[in-house]
Amino acid sequence: MDPGLGERLAGWAEAFDRLQESARWRWGGSLAGAVLASPFFLTTPPDGLQPVAWRCAGVAAWMAFAWVLGTLPTAVTALVPLFAFPLLGIRTIRETATAYADPLLFLLVGGFFLGHAMQRVGLHERLVSLLLRPGWTRTSPRRVLLATMIAAATMSTFVSNTATVVMLLPLTTLLADRVGTPRSRSAFGLGLSFAASIGGVATPIGTFPNAVLVKMASEQVGREVSFASWMLVGVPFVVLAVPIAWVIVGRWLLPARGAPVRPLPTPAWRSGEASVLGVLALGVLGWVFRRPIDLGFVRITGWSEALGMGKAVDDAWVALGVAILLFLLPAGDRPLITFREAERQMPWGVIFLLGGGFALAEGLESTGLSTWLAGPVASMADWPAPLLIATVCLLVTGLSELTSNTATTQMVLPLLAAGAIAAGVDPLSWMVPATIAASCGFMMPISTPPNAIVAEGLHIPPRDMATTGLLLDVALVALATVVGLVLVPLVL
């Protein structure tokens, strides 16, 4: 790979970021998007498509343009359906607004409160210390890197990828400096970022594209993807992907041997740590055992069935229950978390983004536009399955390098669902690998917030990120393809 390509890509990305902040770009880009979308409002719709669906296509086109080019903040763009759908007769304001209060969003809110509590009591420091306690983990730079990546991936299953990187960055910097090789900061920074993004795939609350998939599967496919069933796909992917990332980063940037690294001091138990661990365990048990588990030789009755609650509760109910406990249980002379603290760090923009994507998807479905668009997508079903899924994953990963992975899944999954249904193919065999691929953009600082944080915080040369990121993109697209071909039919 050309060593200068990384610097050029990073330079272009930085210049584009500055351009997006200018008022001229915002006005000009928004007008350009309106011009490009105007045919949907001024022309007769194609055969088989109702005028209301054609207008909905115009809204979708304008939103996609704004999301990809950043002519408006992504969260603000996500609010457009609330204004445009009633104006254009697509859906009423009440129908549209329900998407912004979907139960899945409360699952994420509960998960965020849990992650905030883990951060506040310092569980992240204890996790890293425990992983570095065994002597074998400190005998070489690459093993120290592996322990750091395992810690990051483990944390990001329940804490947002960005928060994981922010919490572990000081400890990672300390370890990189103790290793002391010429490129140790690049290796540990990229290992931290990549592992945090990968670890989020493990659970529905680990990263936002997973939540989009759960919602789309329920609304468009009629299949419930529970917390436990998603983990049967996500955890194996993470278990395989973290070592792949470790091999790529470690072999490229670290020597095989080096001086042993001194262990980090084990922190004293803080007030509230045991309580947060207990609440976390309660939440995990509630998510895993909510629905019946049929192992073939034995059937474990889910607690919701045993209590006669059935479909009256879901994973969001569990998340809110454990979140409320966090505000009640004490840590010294105060509760584990306070709402004022949590409110300041709540990712409201992402909540709006998810709600807007759900509203757009419901508009596509209710007007029949998604069914009409399914024709070209369904024609891909004639391709060999490995080629089809790999192509979808490559396209999604490439788009995620340039724009929000949440916005990418919001745009792509409805089309994949409709296309697969029209072709008579299991929609999840296309949608799940595409969702995983959305979390696999690793090449540039703008690809993910974790990449941006480590690039700035550890001054990582762009060529290191571009080279290792490209190799990891290709490897994980292949792994996501295997997941779609082998694992999804078995567990979903």
Describe the SSE topology.
Elements: H1 3-20, H2 23-37, H3 39-42, H4 51-69, H5 74-77, H6 80-87, H7 93-97, H8 103-121, H9 123-131, H10 141-155, H11 161-179, H12 184-199, H13 208-221, H14 227-253, H15 273-288, E1 293-294, E2 299-300, H16 303-306, H17 315-328, E3 330-331, E4 334-335, H18 339-345, H19 348-367, H20 369-378, H21 385-402, H22 405-423, H23 428-438, H24 449-457, H25 462-491
Antiparallel strand pairs: 1-2, 3-4
Describe this structure in words.
The protein is mainly alpha-helical and about 500 residues long. It has one domain (about 5-490). It is about 70% helix and about 0% strand. It contains 25 helices and four strands. A hairpin with a 2-residue loop joins strand 3 (about 330) and strand 4. Helix 9 (about 125-130) runs antiparallel to helix 10 and helix 21 (about 385-400) runs antiparallel to helix 22 (about 405-425). The protein is globular.
By DSSP, the count of extended strands is: 4
| Alpha-carbon Rg, integer | 23 Å
Question: How many separate helices?
Answer: 25
Binned, the helix content reads over 70%
Bulk shape: globular
Largest sheet: 2 strands, antiparallel
Rounded mean pLDDT score:
85
Strand content: under 5%
**How many structural units, i.e. domains?**
1
The end-to-end distance, rounded to whole angstroms, is 39 Å
